[in-house]
Automatic annotation (TrEMBL):
UniProt xrefs under PANTHER family: ACETATE COA-TRANSFERASE SUBUNIT ALPHA (PTHR13707:SF60), KETOACID-COENZYME A TRANSFERASE (PTHR13707)
Xref: InterPro entries: 3-oxoacid_CoA-transf_A, CoA_trans_fam_I, CoA_transf_BS, NagB/RpiA_transferase-like
GO molecular function: transferase activity
Protein name (database record): Succinyl-CoA--3-ketoacid-CoA transferase
Membership in a protein family: Belongs to the 3-oxoacid CoA-transferase subunit A family.
């Protein structure tokens, strides 16, 4: 059965106010550009968004902040977005900062059906406040709950019509985890092939986790920061 849709908006008929969206990407690397824009145009509000960060002011998830569609952000880094800072200070945005490895494991656990796990990360800090703590082998650990979402929005380099995915190098980042932990997963891709055209050894994530596939065009792939070496010979 083909999961390919011609109109990205078809995937979001069931996206309602107050839902939780898991968004792949790291900075601006591997973000689902077209999918984020579709949510922006739909106008869904009071969203809880789980992602490593929240894009920049005018790109990525920052586009949803701009329209005040995000009520709560669960992320590990928030330093590149002035709108984010303003909304946090004025109290219109709830923020749950989570250590990056813990955030990844929360999503992985959610996708694997594991309700909670123990980690040493955050022991003795504000991160541990209000959380169950236990000792294992003479070391203290805190319990972290898994994360699940209503929708997962993902960017992949290639997909077949069933949804088997191939990611491009570091653009894999949080994308597979968000896909696995969501009830409904929407994937935008740059290349679409027929089922069987991807070597099984090349598949990074099985299509069993994918509900919708959208073949995008004209990806901006904006670079967040450029560090270039000066021409010493010039």
């Amino acid at each position: 059965m083909s999961k390919v849709i011609a109109d990205i908006n078809m995937a979001f008929d069931g996206l309602n106010d107050g839902m939780t969206v898991l968004a792949g990407g790291f900075g601006l690397c591997g973000i689902p550009e077209h999918t984020i824009e579709a949510i922006r145009m739909k106008g869904t509000k009071d969203l809880t968004v789980v992602s490593n960060n929240c894009g920049v002011d005018d790109f990525g998830l920052g586009r949803l902040l701009e329209k005040q569609q995000i009520n709560k952000m669960i992320s590990s880094y928030v330093g590149e977005n002035k709108i984010f800072e303003q909304q946090l200070i004025n109290g219109t945005l709830d923020v749950e900062l989570t250590p990056q490895g813990t955030l990844a494991e929360k999503l992985r656990a959610g996708g694997a059906g594991i309700p909670a796990f123990y980690t040493q990360t955050g022991v003795g800090t504000l991160i541990a406040e209000g959380k169950e703590a236990r000792e294992f082998d003479g070391e203290m650990y805190i319990m972290e709950r898994a994360i699940k979402g209503d929708f997962g929005i993902v960017k992949a380099q290639k997909a077949d019509t069933f949804g088997n995915l191939v990611f491009e190098k570091t653009a894999r980042n949080f994308n597979p985890l968000c896909a696995m932990a969501a009830k409904t997963t929407v994937v935008e891709v740059e290349e679409l092939v027929e089922l069987g055209d991807i070597d099984p050894d090349e598949v990074h994530m099985s299509g069993v986790y994918v509900d919708y596939i959208y073949l995008g065009e004209k990806f901006e792939k904006r670079i967040e920061k450029r560090t270039v070496k000066e021409d010493v010979h010039g």
